[in-house]
Amino acid sequence: MSLNDALQDNREESDRVEKHNMQEKHIAVFVDYDNIEIGVKSTLQREFSVGVVLDALKERGHIVAKFAYANWGRQEHATRQMAENAVQMVQRIPSPRGDKNGADINLALDALEMAFTHGHVNAFAIVSGDSDFIPLVNKLKEYGKTVFIVGGKAFTSTILQQNCHEFISYESLLDDMPAPRERPPRSERDRGERGERPAREPREEGAAAPQSQNLPQEKRQRPAPLDLAQALPLVERALEVLERRAVQPQLGLLKSTMLQLSPAFNERAYGARSFSEFVEKLKASDFVKVTGSGGRYIIERKSTMPNQPPMLKPEDALPAVRDVLETHRLDLEDTGASIATLEEWIREEVPSFDWKRFGFQELAELLNFAQDRGVARTEPSEAHGLMVYLGAEFYPPAAPPEPEPEEILEEEDGPQPIVKGQPSFLEPHPKPEPPTRGGRSTTKRARPAAGTATKRPRRAPTKKRT
Hints:
By secondary structure, this protein is α/β, with parallel strands linked by helices. Among the domains are: 26-176, 5'-nuclease (Rossmann fold); 224-310, 2-Layer Sandwich (Nucleotidyltransferase, domain 5); 314-394, 2-Layer Sandwich (Nucleotidyltransferase, domain 5). 35% of the residues lie in helices and 13% in strands. The strands form four sheets. Strands 3-2-1-4-5-6 form a six-stranded parallel sheet, sandwiched between helices. The relative contact order is 0.08.
């Protein structure tokens, strides 16, 4: 068999394995609605759309079950889209004392039950950014299940992102179309047609202009893409792994290897709509060597790579954030600060700081990473979006109290017993004891004084002999 025939067989085998795996993916979707809804609204100023998530999961397999957990009596606006997408709504009624993790526990139990009782379900999609699901993800992986995590990069725990098989960021699913603007009332529209300028409401002197980016109803678009060079270390590492395995680095194998090394990778973060377009951009930038056509691309590393500045790691961005938080510590300890306010502080104090150089598309993603490292803490707010507070690093636990030294009790010198024949304070040189005979002392007994009667012991009467 020639080398070309062997390569062709390798390609066909790889394609067959990919298609076979794709057909066997039966996905069960579990939506933690309260978490994903408030996360999307506070970070992206959008309403959560379950249809967008389901469309992305359909590209990865067949969806066989869909469940969403929430107190649906308080989420009536979301029940319509759930019904339209045939999502089974699981009602959670909190107890009078509160039910903080009730939905999480119910979701985890149902997912494990399905993993045990439905053998054909071999993939699970958890739509949430809560780090409490890390034990569930690990347990599903132990039983050989593929786990997808769907959440926002700005509020999903980075630990959860790196411990699943693939992380699907909600930001990458957004469209690039501008947000639709509401049509003005008819009276204002007529004025514009006649060439008249619409009347403006007077604004008080000193009043700040409204910030539309902080309002929840203002829809934000997909963030600006990252520099393509930042993905080059991951691409090179994946190509090295495939070379060691003696496998042809085709498109599908390259992407699966990159996801195996970094589950949070997404080509859309670099401005590509598909992975093939991502590879085309790498080729156009002279980063890789691509051969083949018709979708059967073979990607190889170039022998001489262009000189690139050293890539910065995400951890390298934490010192600048830590310094800004420390400078405004008093403000943050009282009421916290909005993410827009923190961005202004960073631009004023560190003008050269750019979080995109560290692999973050937005400041919220950097703060989410800092929260997992204990530098900052973020909480969603309906009025101000995402609020920033000082992390646990600024409140170290108090040092344990030093053990008190044990008190050594000194023995008091009491009166010493006087032993006959031993030296003492009163008699430093006692007279020696006389020797004894047969265990009896040889000293003479003292005689009683004159005139004193001495009592002799009475003898027992003896019997007379007859």
